[in-house]
Amino acid sequence: MTSMHRSGKARAVPYNRVAKISMAAMLVAACGPDEIVEEFVPPEPVENRHVNILYWQAVSTMNPYLSGGTKEIEAASLVIEPLANYDDNGEMVPVLAAGIPTRENGGVAGDMTTITWKLKQDVVWADGTPFTARDVVFTGEYCLHEEVGCSADASFTDVEGFEALDDHTVRVTFSVAKPVPYGPFVGAVTPIIQAQQFKNCTGLRAPECTTENFGPIGTGPFKVDEFRANDVISFSANERYREPGKPWMKTVTLKGGGDAASSARAVLETGEYDYAWNLQVEPEILEQMLAAGKGEIVMGFGTNVERLVINQTNADSSLGPERRSLLLDGTNPHPFLSDPHVRRALSLAIDRQLLVEAGYGPTGRVTCNIVPAPPIYASTANEGCRTPDPDEAKRLLDEAGWVPGPDGVRAKDGVRLSILYQTSTNSVRQGTQALIKQMWQQIGVETELRNIDGGVFFGGDPASPDTYQKFYADVEMYTSNFQGTDPEFYMAAWVCDEAPGPDNQWLGTNMSRGCSAEFDALVDKLAVTPYGEERFETAKRMNDIVVENHFLIPLIWRASTSARARSLKGVRMNPWDSELWNIEDWHR
Amino acid sequence: MIRYITRRLLFAVPTLIAISFAIFALLDLAPSDPTGQLPLTIPPETRAQIRESLGLDEAFPVRYAKWMEQFFVNEPLNLIERAFDVEIGDSDSRTRVISYATRSPVVDIIAERMPQTLWVVGLSYVVGIMIALPIGIVSAYRQYSWFDQVGTFVSMVGFSVPTFFTGLVAIILFSVMLEWLPSIYDTTHRVTDLASFWVQIKQIIMPVMVLAFYNAAQLSRFMRSSVLDNLNLDYVRTARAKGMRERAVLLVHVLRNSMIPVVTMIALGIPTIFGGAIITEQIFRVNGLGQLLIVAIQGADIPMVQTLTFLFAVLIVGFNLIADVLYGILDPRIRYD
Description:
The structure holds 2 protein chains of 2 kinds.
Chain A: H1 15-31, H2 36-39, E1 50-55, H3 70-76, E2 84-86, E3 92-94, E4 114-118, H4 133-144, E5 159-166, E6 169-174, H5 195-198, H6 210-214, E7 222-228, E8 232-237, E9 251-256, H7 260-268, E10 275-276, H8 283-290, E11 295-310, H9 340-348, H10 352-359, E12 364-366, H11 390-399, E13 403-404, E14 410-412, E15 415-416, E16 418-424, H12 427-442, E17 446-452, H13 454-457, E18 475-480, H14 488-492, H15 517-526, H16 533-548, E19 552-565
Parallel strand pairs in A: 1-9, 1-10, 16-17, 16-18
Antiparallel strand pairs in A: 2-3, 4-6, 5-6, 7-8, 8-9, 10-19, 11-18, 11-19, 12-19, 13-14, 14-15
Helix pairs in contact in A: 7-8, 9-11, 10-12, 15-16
Chain B: H1 2-29, H2 44-53, H3 60-84, H4 106-141, H5 146-160, H6 163-177, H7 194-231, H8 234-241, H9 246-274, H10 278-284, H11 289-298, H12 302-330
Helix pairs in contact in B: 1-12, 4-5, 4-7, 4-9, 5-7, 6-7, 6-10, 7-9, 9-12, 10-11, 11-12
């Protein structure tokens, strides 16, 4: 039993078990032959300053620029930090920066083409060397180097250059006006790496620097003791961390592997782990596990929305690759989904509350918007979708001339309302698919379900017919979100020109292939509208256009969901940044 | 014998090259993408750039030739360099097989994973054999006795119930309900004293037993039928007629003869140890070679999958040869020359 108490590296012992062990120890002491009274001192409370974190997807590298995966970004956030990050309310808070530059305080230039960051003084790297503006400039140039294949380069869109004005001032210059210039160095996606450590790792050499990529020197609360790729990472506190007395935890183990349900079990039922990440598990299973009383669910609602994408182009399998699911300037419309009545009817028929209850429980909410948050950007114009109305849906279809045939499936001019509905393989998604199929059946729409392995569906292989970009189906479903708190980049993806096709190597982002001239004009407007009421209203209007046209049908606003042990305090679930953003404050 | 072995080894070379090509071609044809698991917030242009930086835009023969060079020339050279601490040629510019996911040399990760797989899966194999042989022998000797019936039943269950089920049942029983054993294997745990040895036993026992149960079920049936075959043969009757004790008949004569096919089975099964037990490793988070392979497949980490599957192929070809040679040694009637 003593092994369990060996230093901080020991396995976390649930409190009740610790209590049992010390009780047993006391009993043994009490039964000893002599000096019973003197020996009876209450044992020191065991202070467990070790935290065990479980990520069911194992972490592959500690250099997020070479991976881009959420797991890598979050693991690295223990060690390397950005200039500012988002707190659990989506507000920007300075980390390595002394403050947030704005137009008001002069940090952002009047023409919105530069942003000047003032850095905190006296910050040192874990190796004791000072942190300076040089490191920030190096990081930016590291990622923008063409041969790196930097996964964060979207955060550096339109960046023209970086400049260290002095040791503690950095200026980022953009080639166009940036109303929201908080892409570079804000959030866990773009942390600052040490110039000294990575100086020989730029460009083509980046992947060769295994030691550096597995053990970056950082300014964050922890440093890497041991990194085992795709398995486990051991961290210990960075004694040079800038905030005195932090982090409270002395060591951290971040283990990977397994699946979401067994991760939840390790925290909620067996109590072996203190924190488990990203638990998309059916609500009834979670509830069962929660009954053990060892832990609880932590949630944060960010911008994740599970949505249906309605194909506006003809996806008929009899068409060749030169026509199938291609926009072709609007000459290839979908035989029935191009009819707005049909799209509206499909949305009206869906009982979103039922979908939430069946597949998500408390970790999902009904949403009628594709941009559900932050509140300043969330439209209130579409709340009607909360109450399903199959009768109205039937009426709409009747009115548009879609009448039920002998088999109950509606048809018009020989075109049957028969939908191929695809999504990625995932038990919650398949449950949702089955429910929606039933709901559509009730209004006379036939649905064929299909699911594709996530790696293929979301993989952009242009040779594969099964990717979500190819969209060789009528309807598809997945979740997407945006980084940070500004939806400009996210919504710009849905302009008409971005319809995937061979001309853009199927890399287009307007999956529905829906086109609206008003929307496209607003995208251009949003790109130059400064932060403020007009910007919010423009973004909301864009959301409304997409939703009212039913190119995208929002279904469920999904929370980032994790589990924590009851003994672990200070966890503030953050859907806007790394979940482990405030790990220096975690305590027991 | 030597000539036979040499001939077989020479045959193995084209076989293995054909296998490596087949694996590479299959992986290339499979619709997978190393950026497929990235968050959707990463735009497609960035994904294209990442793929390019991985060298995926090069032509198939170029990539295959590169892998061949890295695996058959550079990696062995690197191994020799490290083993003898020497430098052969320009070792800085020699590229190694690099994983897409971790961007680190594949061979290093495999070496890091080897110990836990050998411990857990290897031990389960040994335990499985130790359980299977006695059960098989007794079941055959006392055919249709209650022991045989129970053994048959248990073997059927062990054989037909998958390890993801038995593993889960074991976790729920011993970790959730009884709280005796950890459900997650700690790969960083080091055995330094008696207490830490005890911790190691506690964390290894569930995965080992789950796998051993599965292995034993198969082997014991095989052992049973092999012993049964022998028990009815003339030499057994002769031995008994000579007045040999039953113990000697069974454990010396019958056992030795019936071990011949079983030893082959065991030898052929050894490569699967290195292959890890994908599902069991995943359930108990042993994170050995099996888990490495499955994660690599899911993440389309082609160099990793290619190297691992090829190493398994080498092991299978090698142990097939060993099994054949063992056959000749165990059974003097078999001659290869």
